[in-house]
Amino acid sequence: MPGFENAPMPDLPSANLSISEFQYDLPEDRIARYPLAKRDASKLLVWRGGIIGESHYADIADWLPAPSLLVFNNSKVIAARLLFQKPSGGIIEIFCLEPGDAPSGIHNAMMAKGKIKWKCLIGGASKWKKGTLLEKKAGSLVLQARFLGKETDSFIIEFSWTPAQLPFAEILHETGLIPLPPYLKRNAEAADTERYQTIFAAEEGSVAAPTAGLHFTPEIFNSLRQKKIDTEYITLHVGAGTFLPVKSERLAGHVMHEEFIEVRTDTLQRLINKLTEPIIAVGTTSLRTVESLYWLGMKVAGNKSIRPSALVVDQWDPYRTDSGLPAKEALQYLLEWIRRQPGQKLITKTGLFILPGYSFKIIGGLISNFHQPQSTLLLLVAALIGEEWRKLYQFALENDYRFLSYGDGCLFLPR
Fold first, then answer.
1. pTM of the model
2. Beta strand 51-56 pairing with 43-48
């Protein structure tokens, strides 16, 4: 089996595609600035084997195959925007991206007490001198931020606070703001604290919501149970890179953002048990995570003693090998490796780049919102359903569907 390590970018025909081929006209008035009053009232465009149907999320169970397994991302959006006022009166905005050093994952970083370093974006960075301390108060809580240095595309900030016994998660909750997507072009409001969060969010760490899950309600979950459609949860902490456009004209030049994933052994075992049924991802983040598990298993199959730090998914990994290892075997290799690790939980990063030409190994369907033109998320949809994405998106534009995070969605069932 060929190795992944240090392999060059593969000679992949679709890597030479132009990103301009994934452009469509999205009028400003089609972007949903606010959610509907009811989560499950959003419209649902169904694409099943090339045939288009229309429905609403409240009735999604009627369109899903049974039995099947829906995989949700249970990551929770953190209040990642911090506004500090300088003594001179100017405002410095700090946007928390991810821990500066988090080999044990974002969860442990969120539980840190007293002090922690984070990679951040900074609004007004030129006005903040290295080493200068900024301070923010909220009742008896005092949060300080020190500018330590600059990296290629972020800054390293050291946060410290009192009372020191409080976890960083609570510090953000008390002092930060929910970070809405930039294309909404508005500040977060009180209602966004609830609505820009799925009802099953549990693991704090995302700076953007896994938006496909925003539509799901207790009533939908009840209808899924009645139809014997099972559910499972994985964690991918959505990073700010999800909003970045593909800046290179050719896909080969795009550097895919990496995101933290966390998967339990019982979840992995359940996926193995359910491979004979359709496994449908709720959201592109769930899809990236589940498909990443296959490639991680491939790496373990090639090196059973692989170090945890080396067990990550590079954006080109799927295109560097022609191995046909069945999904069950790949996941079993990964499961056995995780069981040999302290904590028996997979915590790693994935930079998986799914573009046309990708061969899906586990996922057989996708529930997703409508995505921005020329985005990696739209490339993923095109990889799943091919050129049909154009007809589907045009249909949505012509029939008053609402787009992006707070908008309507699609159910793709290609097989």
1. 0.93
2. antiparallel
